[in-house]
Design a protein that fits this description.
The protein is an alpha+beta fold. 35% of the residues lie in helices and 20% in strands. It has a six-stranded mixed beta sheet. Helix 9 (232-246) runs antiparallel to helix 10. The termini are far apart.
């Protein structure tokens, strides 16, 4: 007798167990459902109420059962055993899904076999990765209409592909284009994501990357958000630029060379972004790749979870490609070094940097969670005299904002209404970044309009003038773009020479020299120490 029959009877029917009193007309649907799912066993000779009544186990009876199974397309992998007066059919998970019988397609759902309608069949094929999104031909997307020549040129240059052949032939060789029945050259989905001009119809809006910054450790308060909705390569580059601009960056010097080091290694974040774009489920139009920055972590997620057939334990060891054409294109363009090594590289890079490896989770989404390290505080040389009390923490890439009368008035009025408001709260209230608010507050303090009383955390602002000075905006509004950039670099505590300022701000050395003279004349900055060993500081009062 079957060794585990008592246990099976006590547990009853389930996802992998089915009882049948006799081999009835529904037998084919049960076998079909198990083959399309994770396999299972059918016990013939046991009722739904778990009564063992037995069944005909003769050769003719078994032959009839086998004929029923053989009518399933394609033929499933099954074994039939006789135990006393019970027949046990073991159905193995199919390797040639989907399987169908004369009544249609069936899938196991809990203890039942469920018939799939049209939408269910499509969803099943997608979930099993039987239909490949990236290879699907888009007959409505003709190359002659919306071919992005610039994106194509950038790709073949990165991929090192010779342009001896016509671009049409190269795209077909890459599986990015096909000839339809009218002999028109049309994009596949992969080709459209890489080389179709998406500026007008926004058809691939669901394939964008959404980046956001949140105050605190949850999504209650959004500080900033930006969407990247171009071709795949532009989206990846845009998301990486966003991370560079909004994560802390410190500078290390080796000889005359300056290195910018992100608080989380850029190589690890880049691999995570590329992995999310490469392996997302593009059939899911209601979700996007997300890059989320919190006070304590960075989360990078994509819809789709792990591809079917890959377990969490095999992550970083084995690789299954949900979108093989997209993966191949990114590999050719140098975004992926070797297929299937991304997760392992992320872990190795984080370990080499002395940081915790990211935590990977897979549900409906696949998510990589990077823990942010403690705030970096630069060392100020002890021999430099008269160092201001406030030395900004960290070294940030600074987005340059213009400052006008309205913004200054908004900051001044907000402080009047709420003297304990933090920089972040003011920035959120006036819908500007905190660097802009810091600049305005610095100018208000220099003008003698406000001062800080108490600590940064528990103190408050004190108004020294009840109304904003009429000439307040003149302090900043007459600065050129180059002067504002240099001022921001100094305010944020970057340790740079004038040559380095020019490179960092993207302006000429002469423009930096003029900016420093102008900022000094206006009393916005001052030099502490000598020309060789000193540095510039904002002129605090």
């Amino acid at each position: 007798m079957i060794n585990d029959l008592d246990i099976i009877l006590s547990e009853g029917e389930g996802y992998k167990i089915e009882f049948k009193k006799a081999p009835d007309k529904d037998l084919a649907t049960e076998v079909c459902a198990f083959a399309n799912s994770s396999g299972g066993r059918i016990f013939i000779g046991i009722t739904d109420d778990r009564d063992v009544v037995g069944t005909d186990t003769s050769n003719p009876a078994r032959s009839k059962i086998q004929d029923t199974i053989n009518n399933i397309e394609p033929r499933p992998d099954t074994t039939m055993e006789v135990h006393g007066d019970i027949i046990v059919i073991t159905v193995h998970e199919g390797k040639k899904k989907p399987y169908s019988c004369s009544k249609g397609f069936y899938l196991r759902s809990g203890p039942n076999s469920q018939k799939l309608d049209r939408e269910g069949i499509i969803e099943f094929l997608q979930s099993e990765d039987i239909i490949r999104y990236d290879s699907k031909v888009r007959n409505e997307f003709r190359l002659s209409d919306r071919f992005d020549v610039k994106a194509y040129g950038r790709f073949i240059q990165k991929a090192g592909i010779s342009d001896i052949l016509p671009y049409e032939q190269i795209l077909m060789n890459l599986d990015c284009a096909k000839r339809n029945q009218r002999d028109e050259l049309v994009f596949t989905n992969a080709g459209a994501l890489f080389f179709r001009d998406n500026t007008e119809d926004n058809f691939f809006g669901y394939a964008k990357i959404v980046c956001a910054i949140f105050k605190g450790t949850d999504k209650a308060k959004t500080i900033d958000a930006k969407e990247f909705n171009g071709n795949i390569m532009d989206n990846i580059d845009g998301a990486m630029k966003y991370l560079w601009q909004n994560l802390r960056v410190r500078h290390e010097f080796g000889g005359i060379q300056r290195r910018e080091i992100m608080e989380i290694p850029v190589d690890a974040l880049r691999e995570a972004v590329i992995n999310a774009v490469c392996h997302r489920n593009y059939f899911e139009a209601g979700a996007n790749v997300m890059v989320e920055i919190y006070d304590d972590r960075v989360e990078i997620s994509n819809p789709g979870g792990l591809p079917k057939g890959l377990s969490a334990d095999e992550l970083g060891i084995k690789s299954l490609q949900r979108n093989p054409i997209i993966a191949d294109m990114l590999h050719r363009a140098g975004y992926i070094e070797r297929m299937g090594t991304g997760i392992r590289k992320i872990r190795n890079v984080m370990t080499a940097a002395g940081l915790d490896a990211p935590v990977f989770t897979s549900t409906y989404f696949f998510t990589a969670v990077f823990k942010r390290p403690p705030l970096y505080v630069p060392n100020v040389p002890n021999h430099v005299p008269n160092v201001p009390n406030h030395v900004p923490n960290g070294a940030l890439q600074i987005p340059i904002d213009t400052t006008d009368d309205d913004l200054i008035l908004l900051v001044f009025d907000h402080i009047k209404k709420n003297s304990s408001a933090s920089i972040d709260e003011i920035a959120h209230a006036i819908e500007r970044n905190d660097r802009t608010v810091k600049r305005i507050i610095r100018a208000l303090k220099d003008r003698g309009a406000i001062r800080r009383v108490g600590s940064k955390r528990s103190g408050h602002w004190e108004l020294l003038e009840t109304e904003m000075p009429a000439d307040m905006a003149d302090t900043l509004n007459d600065l050129t773009s180059a002067e504002l950039k240099v001022y921001d670099i100094i305010v944020e505590g970057h340790l740079m020479t004038r040559v380095e300022m020019a490179e960092y701000a993207g302006v000429s050395f002469a423009a930096v020299k003029r900016a420093i003279i102008k900022l000094t004349e206006k009393g916005l900055i001052k030099r502490v120490g000598n020309d060789r060993n000193g540095r510039w500081f904002p002129n605090t009062k």
